[in-house]
Every structure is written in structure tokens, then in C-alpha cells.
Amino acid sequence: MSDANYLQLTEVELREYVKLHPQDEEAFQHYLSIVRAKPNRVVVSTGEQLETELKKRLAS
């Protein structure tokens, strides 16, 4: 898929495309750039971090 086609897909469509075409590294990187640009994004790498973050959000 060319870069021009990526721009025409919605985030949901692009996510589905990436799921169906895991070998398409360019599409995956484009999807990551969209996800990373979202405000309030939280990255966790352990179950404990996830649990802590969920508790913070539920307490708000």
C-alpha cells in the first residue's frame, strides 16, 4: 500500500489493515505515529503499571 493510501484510511480502517497485513512495516509505522500522537496516551510495560494506571483513572 502506498503512503497516499494510508492518508485516506481512518484510524479504524488502518488498524484493521495492519492486523490483516502484519508484514507491511510502513503501514504499521504509520499507524503507530497516529496512536503516539494522541493526547493523554499512557504506556505501561507491566501488569503492575497497568493496574496502578487504571486505579488512578478510576479514582478521578
TrEMBL record:
<dbReference type="InterPro" id="IPR054053">
    <property type="entry name" value="DUF6887"/>
</dbReference>
<protein>
    <submittedName>
        <fullName>Uncharacterized protein</fullName>
    </submittedName>
</protein>
<dbReference type="Pfam" id="PF21826">
    <property type="entry name" value="DUF6887"/>
</dbReference>
